[in-house]
Specification:
The structure is a single chain. This protein has 83 residues and is an all-alpha fold. The chain has one domain. The chain has five helices and no strands. It has helices at residues 7-11, 17-27, 35-41, 43-58, 65-78. The longest helix is centred in the middle third of the chain and has 16 residues, at 43-58. It starts with 6 loop residues before the first helix and ends in a 5-residue tail after the last helix. The mean pLDDT is 83.
């Protein structure tokens, strides 16, 4: 899967925890997940995605958190996503 390039999103450095995290990953030679560019671009919106992810992965469910993690990992593999 080819990454999407949005110059306004990927070039804007607003500071904050995602800028710091991205800088650290780059310094270590690690790949920066594409979604971090979006998080850095609109950090005030990040909390909503984090809450949604937490609720899906850890909220009340008939599925255990471990099984949900396994489903997410399998889905990522099927989508050829390194996440």
């Amino acid at each position: 899967m080819r990454p999407m390039f949005l110059p306004d999103v990927e070039k804007k450095a607003s500071g904050g925890k995602y800028s710091d995290l991205m800088e650290r990953l780059q310094t270590e030679g690690a790949e920066v997940p594409q979604i971090y560019h979006l998080f850095r671009f609109k950090p005030e919106m990040t909390q909503h995605l984090a809450q949604l992810s937490h609720e899906i992965m850890r909220g009340p469910s008939p599925l255990s958190p471990g099984l949900r993690e396994l489903i997410a990992a399998f889905t990522s593999k099927e989508n050829q996503c390194p996440f």
